[in-house]
Amino acid sequence: MKLFTNIRKLYTPVGFHAARGSAMRDVRVTEDAEILVDIDGMIVSVGVKGDHDRSQHEIIDCNDLVALPGFVDSHTHAVFAGERSMEFAMRAEGKSYQEVALAGGGIQSSVRSVREATTEEIVQNSKRYIESALRLGTTTMEVKSGYGLDTENELKLLRAASELRALTHVDIYTTFLGAHAFPKGVDHDDYVESIINDQIPAVTQSGLAEFIDVFCDEGYFSNEQTRKIITAGIREGLRPRLHADELADTSGAALAVKLGCLSADHLLKVSDSGIRALAASNTVATLLPTTALSIRAPFAPARKVIDAGAIVAIATDCNPGSSMSENMQFVVTLAVIGTQMTVEEALTAATLNGAAALGLEKTHGSVEPGKVMDVVLFDIPQLAYLPYHIAVSDVVAVVKRGVIVHGKENLNWQA
Ligand code: NIG
Ligand code: FE
User: Fold this and answer.
1) How far apart are the CA of 255 and the centre of ligand 2, in A?
2) What CA–CA distance (Å, rounded) separates 341 from 332?
3) Is the model's pTM score more than 0.70?
């Protein structure tokens, strides 16, 4: 087995279920920690210096670095073609996200790029962002389709995501998001029918997605269309999640709870009754602060959502339009500065609760026996330094399933 020793401090949420409300502050600190890992990359025990018999194991000296669980980025659209920096520039000149979309940009612009691209081109485009996410400490990532908007191109995106799973060290989980926007020139009700009758069956038959998502919002999919699509997806074995209450309060959070969604995401405009519904449920409230920053919208009311007792996760929403960042460390910083989350709450939201948003809380999101050894080593004095050192990465090494997949040269091996 492998023994990771000489860890200055290990910070981790604990538990095999999501942390809700005030429990999000419960982060365990172990000084001078050691982590014993079996050959399958599972954690056998976590202790302090001297707890383990060194002669029995391969020793990995972690050089007095600080260890955190790998980030679980539970909401991204990181598989796409092209880029949209010109839209960013238009917003800088005063146009809103919706105005840019109406001027021919927005999701439709990425749809055009994806339809013109081959699977291989999409893989190469996205590989760069996923590898970068790993270097920044993300070990598990959800990726959505949604820039194809027909069966062929939605499958192309999901196939690209599946190829990236083999090409990178990030654990990738996939979501079918055919209901991301209405394709140009197609009747809206006809499109909903084609998602239900053509896209969902093709996706489930391909086995390329585990989740289904709908952009339920003003100007996008109505609550009734959302209900129909999600119900059809559940019937075919996909697990539901929802883009909810981002551009307007359309009671999306309450709908997500009612439909049994694993998560309700964005929530910039969530109402008090939506917050109460989330707090009374196991649906994870996933907040995406980089998106609010990027589209110049007020941040989601994280304080209210946590204080109400809900389960809160944070994620990047990495996408070419509204959040061009794969950096979970920056998300932690924004959650603390922009949404008044405490440092401990933000860590729990970026790890254990992100795992819960993907149904992975029993295996991922914390560093404890029985979980996968996904750990990031930082050259920082303590946890608070992570969000405090704004937009700079102090990652030294990343361990995925017990294997050092980034920064191996920075650690001492005594095999
Ligand atoms: O999560 N809100 C919906 N979809 C994306 C934006 C996608 C885009 O602009 O390409 C989001 O922010
Ligand atoms: Fe999104």
Assistant:
1) 17
2) 9
3) yes
